[in-house]
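Q: Hi! First time doing this. I have a protein sequence and I read that you can turn it into a structure. Is that right? Here it is:
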Amino acid sequence: MSEADVLKDEIKKLNARATAKKMDLHDLSEELPVNWERILDVARETYDAYKELTEKRAALKALGA
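A: Yes, that's right. Below is the predicted 3D structure, encoded as structure tokens:
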């Protein structure tokens, strides 16, 4: 399996994870003020997921794939 194929597989998984985190953040916002204490944790998890996804996409683009 080529490096590009590996990155594509990782990107698929990361995209699913980022989408799930986005929905977690959305659901949390709709429940406010319940669980307001979790805002920073859920926001950080969402940020980290999208940051990693963006980095992997950039790596794939750098490979020219």
